[in-house]
UniProtKB/TrEMBL annotation, chains A, B:
Pfam families attached to this UniProt entry: Lipase_GDSL_2
Alphabetized SUPFAM superfamilies for the sequence: SGNH hydrolase (SSF52266)
One GO process term, biological-process aspect: lipid metabolic process
Organism of this sequence: Rhodonia placenta
InterPro entries: Iah1-like, Lipase_GDSL_AS, SGNH_hydro, SGNH_hydro_sf
The protein's name: SGNH hydrolase-type esterase domain-containing protein
Length: 256, 256
């Protein structure tokens, strides 16, 4: 790596990821707890499906040759499906099998030793899309002169497909669909406690996302939990003042 | 640039910058409005003074040779002085003249064509440290068994020194000291409306920081205001669907 110094957490996804920079969004909260340890890079593209995100990811994730020059991606979250699961009459729709194949393709781009972007230092987390509150979403769509373009059961089915891909690929799954569904007591109308418009998460929804990501890191990659990483540069009251500037040289985030 | 794709806003500073990742902190708000246009890289180091930050910056900011491989820093905020202005009995204290010289050195590292880190694409903003509420800070220090290590007039004087450096170097200054001082009606006790502990900004304080940074960008580098930049990848409803994946190729953030 040439400069900028810190390795990164890359968040790949759609509007749910893009909105992570809202106050108390999951990107903001990750950036806060990983401050001075890992940078957070948000590659959430509102409205995108897995089909459109593949060429984006190919441009955002360094090839093996390029990896020596850029910060290492230590954690990669892949969170798509909310748009793939749109009704088949929309341009965003991607059939369920194709969606699953695209997720597997994204994962293998990073984890397959034969891939040009193979990156053994990168830990992948796969998130399932949250349930849709069609009662809320229908009202907003109709106010905009459109019609309902999401389906509760379809999103459930796409979330299950994502979980199956994670299991088949050996990648930990953050099963948001079920976590949010459990949180609202399996009552679709009560999803409004976690979704501000029926599709997008509010702060309570993002709290579940953040908590579940951290739990999944703790369980599967405890060495990457923020409490187990050291800051790249020392805390100010630990600087060896007799040895400046050498004491201020970049250090590994992994304690000895 | 090899990958990761977006150019960046780099925030260099002390705890006031580090805290920018708090909800509604200025880093969070910049990341939100510059989403899909510029990434935000927080290089705020709590407790650091200008003396300690120089070797840090040398490691974080690419040399000319390295710059081809890493994202360009389009905007660099330099915001130091809150610790330099600590009382002379502390390890954090840096004499005022040395503080001013260090700020000039940081600026010239980027702007002097003879510097190894010369980067004409980088626009520098210099922020003055905010005023200190010694009434608040003293209570907290004494609770911790310490004594008052900040001085209202010293911080004012350091803020003035930073403004003078900005003027001399031809770099726009975000004069937070005066903006916050004006906001509280020139009454030190009322600084508690903007500082949660007498030294560090709360959400109301960060709102001033964010607003003043955006105003300063609008005035001095309007081409870098977020409204004048295009997203690196197209909005989903503007994707030329007959031309995928070519339509999803990275584009300049500067509209033609």
């Amino acid at each position: 790596m040439a400069a900028n110094v810190e390795d990164v957490i890359m968040l790949l996804g759609d509007s749910l990821t893009q909105g992570g920079w809202e106050p108390n969004g999951f990107a903001e909260r990750l950036a806060y707890v990983y401050n001075r340890k890992l940078d957070v890079i948000n590659r959430g593209m509102s409205g995108y499906n897995t089909e459109w995100i593949i060429p984006i990811f190919e441009q955002c994730f360094a090839t093996q040759h390029e990896q020596q020059h850029v910060p290492k991606v230590r954690i990669l979250t892949i969170w798509l499906g909310a748009n793939d699961a749109a009704t088949p009459d929309t341009s965003q729709h991607v059939p369920r099998d194709k969606y699953a194949a695209n997720l597997a393709k994204l994962i293998r781009m990073v984890r397959d030793p034969a891939s040009p972007r193979y990156s053994p230092a990168t830990k992948v987390l796969l998130l399932t899309p949250p349930p849709v509150n069609t009662h809320q979403w229908r009202v907003l769509r109709e106010q905009d002169g459109g019609s309902l373009d999401r389906n509760f059961e379809a999103t459930r089915s796409y979330a299950q497909a994502a979980s199956d891909v994670g299991a088949a690929e050996g990648v930990p799954v953050v099963d948001l669909w079920n976590k949010v569904w459990d949180a609202c007591g399996h009552v679709e109308e009560r999803l409004s406690e976690y979704l501000w418009d029926g599709l997008h998460l509010n702060q309570q929804g993002y709290a579940i996302v953040f908590d579940e990501i951290i739990k999944t890191i703790s369980t599967n990659f405890p060495e990457l939990h923020y409490d187990n990483l050291a800051p790249v540069f020392p805390l100010w009251d630990r600087i060896d003042l007799d040895n400046v500037p050498a004491a201020l040289t970049k250090r590994s985030i992994f304690p000895n």
